[in-house]
Each structure stands twice: as structure tokens, then as C-alpha cells.
Amino acid sequence: MKAAAMKTIHVKDAVGSVLCHDITRIVPGGDKGPVFRKGHIVREEDIPTLLEVGKEHLYVYEPQEGVLHENEAARRIAAATAGANITLSEPKEGRINYSASCMGLLRVDVPTLTRINSLGEITLATLHSMQQVRPGQNLAGTRVVPLLIEESKIVALEQLASRPVVEVLPLQKFKVGIVTTGSEVYTGRIKDAFGPVLRDKFARLECTVMDQVFTSDDVEMTSSAISGFIRQGADMVVVTGGMSVDPDDKTPASIRAAGAQVVSYGAPVYPGAMFLLGYVPTAHGRVPVLGLPGCVMYYKASIFELVVPRLLAGLEVTAGDIAGMGHGGFCSGCGECRYPVCPFGK
């Protein structure tokens, strides 16, 4: 990289120049602090302020061909790496933040992110991929390490980022059918507690619960209820209860009997190990059917929060995806749940 020349110029000739050092203002009996930071690009409106703090001459960088200021470098990095539904901040001290412009699922191209951060003198940091995010939430930030950087490094990054590195996938508003199994609920011996929890969870995701159907521990009755929701146009069906290995628990068999192709029965997620995901083929695609274990009813965050947002984002969840949830899929049981701030579920 060509060394950028540092020179002294009169403040009135400094417009467009890059400051080499902080400019400090001292108020007698008051505060002392920088009025302009190192790297600031001097504007016409800054001249009176500089003169007020006693700066008639400044140390500035002389622009060099093939060298970028940190703010311009950050703008180009952000433009190359930010995808759909991302809002970019203005540079502040060389850094640009990325925020979500809608509720959705954050997706990060982690291999490309790693290659970018391996270029040297470039930094791009993000939240964990595949987590639900809210509008306005900060997701990532980027800046270069030096005040000035070779343009060739930014060009190399732009060539690496052939597709978005950070993006937000909007969540679709599914119509959901709930099938609650178990003779004890079906006969009224105990009151159902799962339905209200699921209605609240889906309402937070802006999904519509079509209805809740109760069935006994009978494969034909439960599979018929699942199929009925699909015929009525459900985008997803969730089945609660009966997910253990107890001989009376027939939910997995009922989901298969409804025509579901089971992707995974069991997940390396605590809470949520006794989870089932299958897809029922239809004329218009495939409808996901989820067998939810009882822990979904008791925990604020569980396998539900890891899988359902992916499905609402239009992603096909595979057996490999579920196997990969083991990394970060352990809840330490720290007391008051702070999901999604908690690392559980990434």
C-alpha cells in the first residue's frame, strides 16, 4: 500500500481533507472532549468550529490513488454484503451498522463471512445465523482497521460476495391447524393447557390458528384430523401430546398415517428432544407437520423457536439442519429466560 502523505494545511483550505488526529474542545469549568474525531472528513460548515477551538492549521492526509478512507471502505463493504430487508446506518467513526427492516429470520453466509474476515484489515461481525429478529434490531457491523486501506482489498471482498452475506428473510403468515392428542384431554379428565400456549406463540409470529381439534390415542382419528386441516388449506399442522416412547403414545404413527414423509424423529435440542418433523405432499407442494413434545408448553424457548421460524421463512428444514442444531441447542436452565438474547438456539 502506498503510504498516505501527511501534511499541514490552513484550515480554510481543508474542506474534503481527512483529519490525522482528534480535535479537542476545552470548556473552562466544563467538559473536555473531541469536537471532531480522527478520520473526519472536513466540511465547509466545520470551518467556523475549527477556528473557534483555535485551529488555524491542520494535519491532514493527502489523498492517494488506490487508497480508500475508512468511511468509503465501510460503505462499499456494506453495499457488497447486505441483502434483502437490511437497513444500513451512516458511517460513525468508520463503522456502519446493519439493522432489520422487518420481522424475519436472519441468514448469514458464514463461509463467505469467514473468508471476508480472513482478507486482513477488514472486519464484519454478525449475530448468529438462523435466529428470529425484530424490526430495527441491530444485526451486524463493519469497519476496516486502519484509517486508510488499499482499495484492492475492498475489490477482493466485492468479488467474494457474489450473493448476500447478511440478509433477513421475511416470515410468512401461515394458517395453522392444531391437533391435540391424548385420551385424558379428549374425555375431559384434564383441561388442555397446550392450546393457549401455542395460540400465543403463533400470534407473536402473526400466524392464524384455524382451529384446535382434540383426538384420543387413536391413530385413525388423529391422522384424519391432520388430513382434515390440510384439505382445508393449512400451511402447517402441529400435533401435541403422545410424543414419548410410551405404548399409548401414537402421535408419530398418526403423522405417518396421514401421509407424512418423516424427516426426523428426535432432535439434539434440550428442551425438545422428542420432536418430529414430517412433510405431507399435496398438489401445491408439501405441508410441514410437527409433532411437539410437552416441553414446548413449559419453556419460553425450545425446539419450537428453532424450527418454526425457518419454516415460516420458506426454508425446507432437513435432517442435516436438525442435526446441526445440537451446537447451541442446550439450554443451561439459568432461571429467568432471556431468549433470544440467550445463546441457546443461537
Automatic annotation (TrEMBL):
- Record-level Gene Ontology MF annotations: metal ion binding; molybdopterin molybdotransferase activity
For the keyword Nucleotide-binding, the answer is no
The record's listing under CDD domains reads: MoeA_like
Catalytic activity annotation: adenylyl-molybdopterin + molybdate = Mo-molybdopterin + AMP + H(+)
Co-factor requirement:
Mg(2+)
Where in this chain does the record put each MoaB/Mog domain? 177-313
Primary enzyme class: transferase
SUPFAM superfamilies membership = Molybdenum cofactor biosynthesis proteins (SSF53218)
GO BP field: Mo-molybdopterin cofactor biosynthetic process
Q: Could you tell me the EC number(s) of this protein?
A: 2.10.1.1
| Gene3D superfamilies reported for this sequence | MoaB/Mog-like domain
Instruction: Tell me the pathway.
Output: Cofactor biosynthesis; molybdopterin biosynthesis
Q: Which UniProt keywords apply?
A: Magnesium, Metal-binding, Molybdenum, Molybdenum cofactor biosynthesis, Transferase
Q: Can you quote a single GO CC term?
A: cytosol
What is the residue range of the signal peptide feature? none
What is this protein's function? Catalyzes the insertion of molybdate into adenylated molybdopterin with the concomitant release of AMP.
Q: Which family does it belong to?
A: Belongs to the MoeA family.
Q: What is this protein called?
A: Molybdopterin molybdenumtransferase
